[in-house]
Amino acid sequence: MTAIISVERLDKSFGTHAALREVGFEIANGEMVTLIGPSGSGKSTLLRHLVGLSRADRHSHSHVRVLDRDVQRGGRLLGASREQRRRCGYIFQQFNLAGRLSVLTNVLIGHLGAMPRWRALIGRFTQQERDLALRALERVGIVGLAHQRANTLSGGQMQRVAIARALVQEADVIFADEPIASLDPRSAREVMEILQRINREDGRTVVVTLHQVEVARRYCRRAIALKLGRLYYDGPIEGLTDNRLQTLYENAGLDELESRQPDPRIAPPLHAVG
Fold first, then answer.
1. 155-168 and 185-202 helices, crossing angle to 10°
2. Fewest Cβ atoms closer than 10 Å to its Cβ: which of 4, 91, 149, 165?
3. pLDDT tens-digit series, residues 63-119
4. What is the per-residue pLDDT for 252?
5. What is the pLDDT of residues 228-245, one digit of tens each?
6. How many domains does the chain have?
C-alpha cells in the first residue's frame, strides 16, 4: 500500500531534554494506527509534528511528509494551501470547541476551508452545507443536540462534535490526540467505536494516541510505541506481547502501570499474545 504519512529522522528537543530522537516510520492509506507509550514518551509531541503544530529541531535531518506534501524538513515548516490543510483533521483531548456556539455551528466550522473566503469570513453557510453537518452529527449519534450550546454537553458528546467537525472538513487523515483520556468508560468506548467505524467504512486513515493498551488492542490493527522519545516498537498490534509491554513501561509510575490493566467496561480482557 502507498504510504501517505512518512517520517524520517525526526528530532525534537526542549532545552536539554530530547523529546524525540531519530523517529521514523510510514503509514499507509486506510490504516488505523495507535501511538502508545508511557507519559512523556513523546506521543503527543510526535502527533503535533505530523500536522505542523510543532517544528523539529533546526538544522536536523528531520522530514515529515503527509498526503504527498512536505509538512516540514530540516526543522523548517513548509506552507500549505487551504485545500491541503483541510485534508488533515485534528481531534484534541480537550475538544477545542467554541462553547457559546451551537453544536451545529461548531461542526460547520470544519467546512470553512472548503468555502469561498468571503463566505468563510462572515460565516454564511448554505442549506446544503447545513445538511452536510446534520448528516455528520447523525452519524456520530447526536443530531438531536444540533441546536444546543456546546458548553452544555458532556465530555463524550463534545468529542463526538469534534469528530463530526472532522467529517464535515472531509479530512482524508484524522489525527486524534488522547481523545478518550478525560472520558468515562462508556463514552470512551463509544468514541473509539465511531473512529473505528469511520476508518472501516470510509477508508480514512486514523492515527490516535492512547494510554490504555487494552483499548489499543481492541480497536487498532497497528501500534507504534515510543519510549524516552525513541521508536520502541512498530508493527501489528498482536506483536505487543505482555513481555514487550513490561519493558515498554519499565520504570513508569504506578498510575501508568495501572492504566495498562484491562477495564471490562471499555473492552473485554485479552490474553497475552506470544
1. 10
2. 149
3. 999 999 999 999 999 988 888 888 999 999 888 899 999 999 999 999 888 777 777
4. 60
5. 999 999 999 999 999 999
6. 2
Domain coverage including residue 17: 1-80+221-253
What is the pTM assigned to this prediction?
0.88
Task: Give the chain's length.
Answer: 274
104 plus 19 within the same structural domain = no
Domain CATH code at residue 68: 3.40.50.300
Q: Is residue 266 part of a domain?
A: no
List pLDDT tens digits, range 195-239: 999 999 999 999 999 988 999 999 999 999 999 999 999 999 999
Tell me: do 56 and 135 sit in the same domain. no
In a domain, 98, yes or no: yes
Q: Are residues 4 and 59 in the same domain?
A: yes
